[in-house]
Amino acid sequence: MSLSLSTNYLASSALFEFSKKIIPPITHELHKGQSGRVAVIGGSEEYTGAPYFSAMSSLKLGTDLAHVFCEKKAGVPIKSYSPELIVHPYLRSLENLKKHNANNIDEKINEIVDKVSAMFSRLHVLVIGPGLSRDQGLISTVEKIIEKAKAVNLPLVIDADGLFIIQNNPDLIRGYKPAILTPNVVEFNRLCEKMKIGNDSNRKYQIASKLSQELGNVTIVQKGSTDLVTNGKTIYTCDNRGSARRCGGQGDVLSGAIATFYAWGKCYQSNNWSHPEELDFATDFDEKIPMLASWAGCYITRNCSCAAFEKYGRSMTATNMVELIGNVFSNTFEENEDKLKKSKY
């Protein structure tokens, strides 16, 4: 399905209907894991909240299992936030690597990468970056994890410090179609600068498409007052009302939401449940599902942000968004369709 560059209600309605079709049914016929398995690669000594928000948002939205692969010192805090998350404190900072393996850092990194990649066959989507930090030991490890993920065609959602990795090494992701990048304004500008693309705010649709093309048509989610999703060929826009409060963690919630819809798309493609009505773009599913998952993730996240702000006002935090995901999802996707534009939560 190809859309014009302008946002209109009909386009949003069509995307909304397609999004609903890949949502797993609530049924006794499915077993654990068939409604999605997501993992987050992130979390460092300084930043433990970001991977929690990403993984927990995925669980609250409806994936069956959510893993977090984090730095050793982040493991206990993240485990303490919720017993629902499966936490693997396998990653090591450069300081930690030097302390225990000063002469064999590369060897230790390869061991960690092998340990993480051994889980890939049990996952549908990998989120890269929340709370990762700029530590060189973690960055070097994640670069190799990305290479391993590409080798098995594992879908990736890359955000936050994961985008810092791509900014410094675009070839790591160039041409990898199952990848979704989710830059904010600053991250988008840095990627454009790296790819030598002039960023003109009056030509944001063309600039976003050009960035995607320069990166080999990976899906770009340019976050802003209107979220823009493009693979360099098609553009979807999402401008339903969000929050006037810009608290930290909203991007992490978004990465988890996108990963969830992406996982559901892969489960739908695998026929994990019966399909009463086939998607009419099923023949191009691998190309279009990252776009659809990105739009749907933006849509539900903006609704959660709006609902949290309406309830909490200035005191709203990302935790409030997470706690409202269930109600927002029900009101948005599982009740009357006349609530598309504005729902009461």
TrEMBL record:
GO cellular component: cytoplasm
Gene Ontology MF: a single term: ATP-dependent NAD(P)H-hydrate dehydratase activity
Root EC class: lyase
Keyword vocabulary terms for this entry: ATP-binding, Cytoplasm, Kinase, Lyase, NAD, NADP, Nucleotide-binding, Phosphoprotein, Transferase
GO biological process: metabolite repair; nicotinamide nucleotide metabolic process
Limits of the YjeF C-terminal domain: 15-332
Enzyme Commission identifier(s): 4.2.1.93
InterPro entries registered for this protein in UniProt: Carbohydrate_kinase_pred_CS, CARKD, Ribokinase-like
Known cofactor(s): Mg(2+)
Keyword Nucleotide-binding among UniProt keywords: yes
Residues holding ATP: 223-227, 242-251
Origin: domain of life: Eukaryota
PROSITE patterns, alphabetized: YJEF_C_2, YJEF_C_3
Catalysed reactions listed for this entry: (6S)-NADHX + ATP = ADP + phosphate + NADH + H(+); (6S)-NADPHX + ATP = ADP + phosphate + NADPH + H(+)
Location(s), subcellular: Cytoplasm
Residues passing through the membrane, by range: none
Matching CDD domains: YXKO-related (cd01171)
Binding locations of (6S)-NADPHX: 131, 184-190, 252
Function: Catalyzes the dehydration of the S-form of NAD(P)HX at the expense of ATP, which is converted to ADP. Together with NAD(P)HX epimerase, which catalyzes the epimerization of the S- and R-forms, the enzyme allows the repair of both epimers of NAD(P)HX, a damaged form of NAD(P)H that is a result of enzymatic or heat-dependent hydration.
The family this protein is said to belong to: Belongs to the NnrD/CARKD family.
PANTHER family: ATP-DEPENDENT (S)-NAD(P)H-HYDRATE DEHYDRATASE, ATP-DEPENDENT (S)-NAD(P)H-HYDRATE DEHYDRATASE FAMILY MEMBER
Protein name: ATP-dependent (S)-NAD(P)H-hydrate dehydratase
Species for this entry: Piromyces finnis
